[in-house]
Design brief:
Layout (H helix, E strand, L loop, with lengths): L1 H7 L5 E3 L17 E5 L13 E4 L3 H11 L3 E3 L2 E2 L10 H10 L24 H9 L14 H12 L8
Parallel strand pairs: 1-2
Antiparallel strand pairs: 2-3, 4-5
Length: 166
């Protein structure tokens, strides 16, 4: 990043932070004025569809991004600039919130999102995944002190203590 900033010669740098939530280099998070991250299902912090976030510590720039993402309007009576409807919808927020930990039930079994006529057994693959997948806390904010506890819980869950050499 240092070489890229030097090459930019004072011009603003927009970072693609899609694979680096929480990452730091030489004590810093972002290097540019603004960073963008995606929540596509294939990303580190994947959601259920397309979504993303723009990150900056500059108030004026953050305000401009919010304005563009809300139809270019500060209130319902006046649009100040061209904008888009880029607000995240509730189902996407639920999936992203669950991405920080394990969701014990698939979305179609959550009361707020249960489609009429669907229930237990409607999506057996999703239901099996919710029962069987492990979602250990693996993220950049996991401290050295927390790691042994994660290993201990995983070993207990997997029955490693009951096996020879475990």
């Amino acid at each position: 990043m240092e070489a890229l900033l030097e090459l930019a010669d004072g011009r603003p740098v927009v970072e693609d932070a899609a694979q680096s939530q929480g990452a730091r280099r030489h004590g810093r998070g972002a290097y540019g004025r603004i960073a963008a991250t995606g929540f596509h299902p294939g990303e580190n912090l994947g959601g259920h569809g397309d979504a993303g976030a723009v990150l900056t510590d500059e108030d004026e720039l953050a305000g401009a991004v919010r304005l563009i993402g809300d139809h270019g309007a500060r209130d319902e009576s006046r649009q100040e600039r061209f904008g888009l409807n880029s607000r995240m919808d509730a189902p996407q927020a639920v999936v992203l919130r669950a991405a920080g930990g394990h969701c014990p039930a698939p979305v179609h079994l959550q009361p707020a999102f249960r489609p009429p006529g669907y229930g237990q057994g409607s999506y057996p693959v999703a239901e099996r995944a919710a029962r069987e997948l492990l979602s250990p806390p693996l993220h950049p904010h996991l401290t050295q002190a927390q790691r042994p506890r994660v290993v201990e819980v995983l070993e207990t869950a997997l029955g490693a203590g009951d096996r020879p050499g475990g």
